[in-house]
Write a structure and sequence with these properties.
The structure holds 2 protein chains of 2 kinds. In chain A, a hairpin with an 8-residue loop joins strand 1 (about 350-360) and strand 2 (about 370-375). Chain A contains 20 helices and 12 strands. The two termini of chain A are about 55 Å apart. In chain A, helix 2 runs antiparallel to helix 3, helix 3 packs antiparallel against helix 5 and helix 10 (about 260-285) packs antiparallel against helix 11 (about 290-330). By secondary structure, chain A is an alpha/beta fold. Chain A folds into 2 domains: about 10-330, ABC transporter type 1, transmembrane domain (ABC transporter transmembrane region fold, Up-down Bundle), CATH 1.20.1560; about 350-595, Rossmann fold (3-Layer(aba) Sandwich), CATH 3.40.50. By secondary structure, chain B is of the alpha/beta class. Chain B folds into 4 domains: about 1-155 and about 300-315, ABC transporter transmembrane region fold, CATH 1.20.1560.10; about 160-270; about 330-410 and about 495-515 and about 525-585, 3-Layer(aba) Sandwich (Rossmann fold); about 420-490, Rossmann fold (3-Layer(aba) Sandwich). In chain B, helix 3 (about 15-30) crosses helix 7 (about 115-155) and helix 7 (about 115-155) runs antiparallel to helix 13 (about 275-315). The longest helix of chain B has about 50 residues, at about 55-100. Chain B is elongated. The termini of chain B are far apart. The chains are: A alpha/beta, B alpha/beta. At the A-B interface, helix 2, helix 3, helix 5, helix 7 and helix 8 of A face helix 4, helix 5, helix 7, helix 9 and helix 10 of B.
Chain lengths: ~600, ~575
């Protein structure tokens, strides 16, 4: 349950949102027209039925004449209308629902596509749950609106018009009189909508508070119990529960006052109107009984859709608010850094150069300060330093996760911004610290969505990074199921799969964020061997937590608070006796007497 | 229908409301019969030319009177019956919540919060539906349906009634069948939707990987496929859903047709009048809803039965750690003696603790160090009586901790957990967690001791800033310090810091420890930590390894011993040096 966002949309905002929603109808113009025609036909049918019965009563039953042929015709017409109406009605209902479903699917795809165009900054500041909700739950609310509200409105509107046309055809005066019922109905609707939007909103919020309280209490039950606050929480919950109950009762009362019971009063008024009209008319001239029958039936048909529409008014309001949230996601300006779509810039050598790059996530504190270094083709540059020293930020810039303003990053002498996105992604391979596995199996996790990669290549990649033995030892081998982000595999095993996933693409540039998580000793050896092989012949930028893995790097950069404080090879840095030296001793558990005091 | 029996206790309790409500429904069912009959009479009188102004006025008055009476009755039966059902929802919800607060940690280990949530929301809603709409549909379909049929048969013609009703049972059967089909298809549609939800969640969680491999388009394609599946499954739902309305109008239309055809014959035979026929048709219109209701009834009741079963099952789980008979109604004071031969967590293969013995004098501080999984937290869990069933004894002030009433035992403990959990409330309310009415000065004092006061004053709304899931996000260190302030506010006899200084920097840690030492001279403290600096001044330190005590003594003694503690200490000193950039 996500937090209820307190926001009031003005009438104009609501109208704007609705118009934008309706724009999604455009590709379905054809289907919508067919459905509308069918809807018109069913309305026509339900208006004609009583008319036929009226004809039967007035022309045949009252004068007691029963010629076989016309009667058969009449009965046949009635029955065919009945059946056709059922068929048209079914197709029409189905069509409208299909259109609504397709519209919502398009909205979903648009929202999801937008999510993929957003920059990492967006994900830093937005909780994932909220974004998921926009794509799924809020769009579901829109679906409800299309299916229940809009289609309901249309049906009712058509039927009301149809009934009135029929009434006018039968008796203009009475039909005019019946028009008096409309303002009364609109008045009830208006009052109901006014209060229900408030009461219903209130009920929704209370429910969300109630569920929020249950969820939070369940999550924090350990704390509640250890601090013996059970009684207080029960009381607090009781209060929210009472408020929810009261809100529920208020809604029941409102519905009772203004929904069906109120509409039924108007129905009774309509009947009284009819009977007094016919009664009074009958004092001066004869009245056709069939016409009375038809009017009674029409009035009856007229009120059912009104009841339905009223019950759905509150859904409408919810859906507009939900749609507004979805549209705001679609309009979010926090886009990913731009790259040219096309272009023939190619990465051939894999030379990487940072020139005076400074960077800040929040625009206030610099996390990288004037970083300059060069990684020549085939070389390995290692980044070491404590948490928060800026190692990951260098990778974030190199991967174009974030846009930078100061300094320049060059690949093969060209600015990184000049390469098409596809070229960059194809030639650079990143292995994340926490290898994220997707739902599926091992093979699909190595191949990802790239259909051009065959099983042979998947296996070759796995063999190359030393993952093959462990995968083969699984009961289903490469077909082994991966569930819930790969939680059934150890950190080391996940890392190996991530290696294979990267190597199957044979990137020119390799970017490694070494895992810090506890890696079991069994996979440790495999990982080291795999890493060694992967780096061979590729320009590699590696974040190393274990200094032992990068002793043969061509260049080691020691970062501290966003600056490169030491640089050189392993040997050079050790002989310097600085920060690197201390880190090295720390990791190897070497304690010298002068520091162990 | 069994569920109505199971809910009998509630109906008995709300006997008055339900009886009044049902009575009102009965009266409404009766009153509903008036308009069609009136229409019939008026039609006949018009046809025969016997209608007079006064007669018409009388009929209209009857109509108006009936309409007004129905309006009032319809309003009140809703209050009586729907109101009662909402009340049942409230009752069950608070019972369930109270039950949740009594459940032990093992209960929560075996169940997922999401499932428990579902019981507290969806299942209660289904039961509420049964007690509201379920009762309504049952009563309404029986009374209205019955009354209309009787009226048709008695006041008009029983033969015509039978004929016209012929198609009606088909409607109840069909709608009930559709309902079942719909439920089944709806479930698969829900599953498809939840797959889509999972997919979205996964894509957002793995956004970096997707970006890294440039697989955005492919991922969108996959999403497109899944959302097409959602459309497909929902169209299956729509195929059934769209059957309802046409089926109803077809069957009702057939009934009308039969009644007109045969009614005409009866009129010709002189068995009934034209007015009767019009009235009869109006009655038929009234029958539509009860027939539908009858179809719905089975589905509502079926869902209510399953849901109520699940709720009852949950409520039947007994709270497993209760107070022993004759448990001391006193707060523990004095020395703490821990003597455990062996303890294993339920269903665990290996013991979590083996031969753990120590005594902690009142007013002293115990430090516990050791790697993750070495047994530090297990010691605390036993102390807090989250688990029992160990081989050995834990005594506080000479009495086994199981000999105290649990509530009295816990009120002496100020526990600061590893995973600091803050509630969606203000900072002040979070700190004054155990004593909501604590004066502000006391809250601030606790915050000052935990070195969080300054941070809090820096928040936009100071102590009234809302934190927790729905509030501002705090750093790990801030959360830890608020948790510490929460425990300190209790001025506990025993303060337990479960690795709760891990996210604060070294200087703050030192300041907090110094503040504790100063103010807590009479009370006992237990600190577990990865970091040696947090425990090095303790009166007594135990080093845990593999669930047992590897080394024991003061800092000086352990350093002199030159064992695990000694090595850990020196490595951490070096680490601190690296953290500071190596220039120290």
């Amino acid at each position: 349950m996500d937090a209820p966002e307190q926001q009031k949309l003005t009438g104009r905002d609501q109208w704007r949102v609705l118009k934008r929603l309706l724009r999604y109808l455009r590709p379905h113009k054809g289907a919508a027209t067919v459905a509308l025609i069918l809807l018109g036909l069913t309305v026509l049918g339900s208006v004609l039925g009583p008319y036929l019965i009226k004809t039967f009563i007035d022309d045949y039953l009252t004068p007691r004449e029963f010629p076989a042929q016309p009667l058969m015709l009449l009965a046949g017409a009635y029955l065919s209308i009945l059946v056709l109406n059922a068929v048209f009605g079914y197709v029409q209902l189905l069509k409208f629902q299909e259109i609504a479903l397709r519209i919502v699917r398009q909205i979903r795809i648009d929202a999801f596509t937008k999510v993929h165009r957003l920059g990492m900054r967006y994900f830093d500041k937005t909780p994932a749950g909220g974004t998921v909700s926009r794509v799924t739950n809020d769009t579901e609310a829109i679906l409800e609106m299309f299916v229940d509200v809009l289609v309901g409105f249309l049906q009712s509107g058509f039927l009301i018009i149809g009934v009135y046309i029929a009434m006018f055809a039968l008796d203009v005066q009475l039909a005019l009189l019946s028009l008096l019922l409309l303002p009364l109905i609109f008045l009830i609707m208006w009052i109901y909508r006014k209060y229900s939007s408030e009461f219903y909103q209130d009920l929704r919020e209370r429910l969300s508070q109630l569920n929020g309280k249950i969820a939070e209490s369940l999550n924090g039950m350990g704390m509640i119990q250890v601090f013996r606050q059970e009684k207080r929480f029960r009381e607090e919950f009781g209060e929210i529960n009472d408020k929810h109950y009261e809100a529920g009762m208020r809604n029941i009362k409102l519905d009772g006052l203004l929904l069906r019971p109120a509409v039924d009063i108007v129905y009774a008024l309509g009947l009284i109107l009819l009977l007094s009209y016919f009664g009074i008319t009958s004092f001066s001239e004869p009245v056709e009984i069939g016409v009375i029958y038809a009017f009674v039936t029409y009035i009856d048909r007229f009120f059912e859709p009104i009841n339905q529409v009223m019950q759905r008014l509150s859904i409408f309001q919810q859906a507009i608010v939900a749609a507004d949230r979805v549209f705001r996601l679609m309009d979010d300006p926090e886009m990913e850094p731009a790259q040219p779509e096309q272009g023939d810039a190619r990465i051939a050598e894999g030379k990487i150069e940072f020139r005076d790059v400074s960077f800040s996530y929040d625009g206030k504190t610099d996390v990288l300060k004037q970083i300059s270094f060069t990684a020549n083709p085939g070389e390995t540059v290692a980044l070491v330093g404590h948490t928060g020293s800026g190692k990951s930020s260098i990778i974030n810039l190199l991967m174009r996760f974030y846009e930078f303003e100061r300094g320049e990053i060059l690949i093969d002498g060209q600015p990184i911004r000049s390469y098409p996105k596809d070229e960059l992604r194809e030639k650079t391979g990143l292995v994340l610290q926490d290898p994220f596995l997707f739902y599926g199996d091992i093979e699909s996790n190595i191949r990802l969505f790239d259909g051009s990669i065959g099983s042979g290549e998947v296996q070759a990649a796995a063999e190359f990074v030393q993952a093959d033995p462990f995968v083969r030892s699984l009961p289903d081998g490469y077909g082994q199921k991966v569930t819930e982000r790969g939680s059934t595999f150890s950190g080391g095993q996940r890392q190996l799969i991530a290696f294979a996933r990267t190597m199957v693409k044979e990137p020119k540039i390799l970017i490694l964020d070494e895992a810090t998580a506890n890696i079991d000793t069994e996979t440790e050896v495999a990982i080291q061997k795999g890493l060694e092989r992967m780096r061979k012949g590729r320009t590699t930028i590696a974040i190393a937590h274990r200094l032992s893995t990068i002793q043969d790097a061509d260049l080691i950069l020691v970062l501290h608070q966003g600056e490169i404080v030491e640089r050189g090879t392993h040997r050079e840095l050790l002989s310097k006796g600085g920060l690197y030296h201390k880190m090295y001793r720390l990791q190897n558990g070497i304690l010298e007497e002068n520091e162990a005091r | 229908m069994n569920v109505f029996m199971q809910l009998g206790w509630f109906f008995k309790e709300r006997k008055k409301q339900y009886l009044i409500g049902i009575l009102m429904l009965l009266v409404v069912a009766g009153l509903q019969l008036l308009p069609p009959r009136v229409i019939g009479y008026v039609v006949d009188e018009i046809r025969l030319g016997t209608l007079t102004g006064a007669g018409l006025g009388r009929w209209l008055l009857i109509l108006a009177g009936a309409a007004l009476a129905m309006y009032v009755l319809r309003y009140y039966w809703r209050i009586m019956i729907f109101g009662s059902s909402v009340l049942l929802g409230r009752r069950l919800r608070s019972e369930l919540f109270a039950h949740f607060t009594k459940m032990s940690s093992s209960f929560y280990q075996q169940r997922r919060v999401g499932d428990l949530m579902a019981h507290a929301t969806n299942d209660i809603r289904a039961v509420q539906q049964t007690a509201g709409h379920g009762v309504l549909t049952l009563v309404d379909s029986v009374t209205t349906g019955g009354a209309v049929i009787i009226a048709m048969a008695v006041t008009i013609d029983w033969k015509l009634t039978l004929i016209a009703l012929l198609p009606m049972p088909l409607m109840a059967v069909l709608t009930s069948w559709y309902g079942k089909m719909l439920h089944e298809r709806f479930r698969t549609a829900q599953e498809a939707f939840s797959d889509l939800n999972d997919k979205t969640q996964e894509s957002i969680a793995g956004i970096k990987v997707i970006k890294t491999f440039g697989q955005e388009e492919e991922d969108i394609d996959d999403f497109r496929k899944l959302s097409a599946d959602v459309v497909g499954k929902n169209v299956r739902v729509a195929r059934v859903d769209a059957l309802f309305d046409p089926t109803i109008s077809l069957i009702v239309g057939l009934s009308f047709f039969l009644s007109i055809i045969f009614g005409a014959r009866f009129i010709l035979n002189g068995d009934m009048t034209l007015g009767d026929l019009v009235a009869f048709n109006a009655y038929l219109g009234l029958l539509v809803w009860p027939m539908l209701a009858f179809g719905f009834l089975f589905n509502i009741v079926e869902r209510g039965r399953a849901s109520y079963g699940r709720i009852r099952e949950l409520l039947a789980v007994p709270p497993d750690i209760g107070d022993a008979d004759g448990a001391a109604d006193a707060s523990p004071r004095g020395d703490l003696a821990f003597d455990i031969l062996e303890f294993r967590f339920p269903e665990a293969e290996h013991p979590a603790l083996r031969n753990v013995r120590f005594t902690l004098k009142k007013g002293e501080t115990l430090g516990i160090v050791g790697r993750t999984g070495s047994g530090k937290t297990a010691i605390l869990k036993l102390l807090l009586r989250e688990f029992e069933g160990y081989d050995g004894a834990i005594t506080y002030g000479g009495i086994p901790i199981t000999g105290y009433r649990k509530e009295r035992l816990l009120e002496a403990f100020g526990y600061v957990p590893q995973d600091h959990f803050l509630f969606s409330a203000t900072v002040r309310e979070n700190i004054a967690f155990t004593d909501v009415d604590a004066p502000f000065a006391k809250v601030r004092e606790a915050a000052r001791l935990a070195h969080i006061d300054e941070d809090i004053l820096g928040f936009a709304d100071g102590y009234d800033t809302v934190v927790g899931e729905r509030g501002v996000s705090l750093s790990g260190g801030q959360k830890q310090r608020i948790s510490i302030a929460r425990a300190l506010l209790m001025e506990p006899e025993l303060l337990i810091l479960d690795d709760s200084l891990s996210a604060v920097d070294a200087r703050t840690e030192e300041a907090i420890l110094a503040a504790l030492k100063e103010t807590r001279t009479e009370e006992t403290t237990i600190i577990t930590s990865h970091r040696m600096s947090a425990i090095q001044h303790a009166h007594q330190i135990i080093v845990m390894e593999d669930g047992t005590i590897a080394e024991k003594g003061t800092h000086e003694e352990l350093m002199a011993l030159g064992g695990i503690y000694h090595e850990m200490y020196r490595l951490q000193q070096l680490e601190a040096l690296v953290e500071q950039g190596g220039d120290a």
